[in-house]
Write a structure and sequence with these properties.
With 340 residues, the chain is mainly beta. Helix content is 9%, strand content 44%.
Length: 340
């Protein structure tokens, strides 16, 4: 009988599969993750198909990656606002696991001869003639393979290592910040006055401290027959503590001190003088900020409790502006963030 023989070609399947939950669409798919792993290892993986299953999810506390294989499961997490750090940590973990699998010697069953007795291992002493055979049902020695320990993923800060947590700029790292933006003063020199502010700060996951400068855009106030030109240059120091939110977006409660030098120059009067006074106020502030990336923002609203009132008067005309017992400050600043 004549039979036609065909050549079967096995198609290599990926060594891992990837699923992504809701909100984790920015995490890598299987092709991208495989490429990252092979780039780290410097060679393609030719092992068993479907050896690892990775699932990316996103919750209120950030991103998570679950890695499952025949030897167990591992979970990585990252509190950052993107999946980039977790992608890198997952690729490093898979590369370490694959290298551990490659170093593990495979178990080979001894070949049996025609009579059913296993052949001795190479180098093993031959059994003496006439030695009794093992009793029926007696357990035979078996080889065991050591399971490699779970790899440790290096953390992004502090120089130490944390097992099972993805590296990243978040998660308690100390940050240096530089902020600048627009500010509005209410009830200080007039009902509303625009200003510019800038500050430098340092902070962690739940706290930050800043020092900065405040410059009031010069204001001209008509009063009687003349006018008053007001300028203010000051500084501020504050400390903030996170009351709610996450690393990506958080609410802070802040307080500190505002101090400055207020100058008023009169013109159009019989006698034109220049008066100067110190300005001191204690802020009670609520702040909404995003400081988890290289660029962020800070929005703040503060009540200003003046330690002294700064009202000016003109002889024969009266008080130019009577400030209220409590003023206010609103700010919007862009923030640059550097992880130390």
């Amino acid at each position: 009988m004549l039979a036609a023989a065909g050549t079967a070609r096995a198609r290599a399947e990926p060594f891992l599969s990837v699923t992504r939950g809701d909100g984790a669409e920015s995490c890598p798919d299987a092709a991208r993750l495989i490429a990252r792993v092979e780039q780290l290892r410097g060679r393609p993986e030719t092992g068993a198909s479907g050896a690892y299953a990775v699932r990316f999810t996103r919750g209120d506390d950030g991103f998570r990656a679950s890695i499952r294989s025949g030897s167990g499961a591992r979970e990585l997490r990252d509190r950052g606002g993107s999946c980039a750090a977790l992608e890198q940590a997952t690729a490093v973990t898979l590369a370490l696991l694959l290298d551990s699998d490659a170093r593990e010697p495979p178990l080979q069953a001894p070949e049996a001869d025609v009579g059913g007795e296993p052949a001795p291992a190479p180098g093993a002493p031959a059994a003496a003639a006439g030695a009794p055979a093992p009793a029926a049902g007696a357990p035979s020695p078996q080889a065991s393979a050591a399971v490699p320990p779970a790899p440790r993923v290096p953390s992004g800060a502090g120089g130490g290592e944390r097992e099972g947590e993805a590296p990243g700029p978040e998660g308690g790292a100390t940050r240096l910040t530089l902020a600048a933006g627009a500010t509005g003063l209410f009830g200080v020199v007039r009902p509303f006055a625009p200003a510019l502010s800038a500050e430098v700060g340092i902070g962690g996951a739940r706290w930050r401290a800043t020092m900065g400068a405040l410059w009031l855009v010069p204001q001209t106030l008509r009063h009687g027959p003349g006018e008053l030109r007001e300028t203010l240059l000051g500084g501020a120091a504050r400390a903030c503590f996170a009351a709610a939110g996450s690393e990506a977006l958080r609410f802070d409660v802040c307080s500190g001190i505002h101090a400055g030098w207020l100058q008023v120059a009169a013109s159009g009067y019989t006698r034109n003088d220049v008066a100067e006074k110190a300005w001191l106020a204690v802020p009670l502030e609520l702040s909404l900020s995003r400081l988890s990336g290289p660029l962020g923002f800070d929005v703040g609203a503060a009540a200003l409790l003046p330690l002294r009132r700064n009202d000016f008067s003109v002889d024969g005309v009266g008080v130019a502006y009577s400030s209220p017992p409590i003023g206010a400050l609103v700010s919007l600043r862009g923030v640059g963030v550097w992880v130390l």
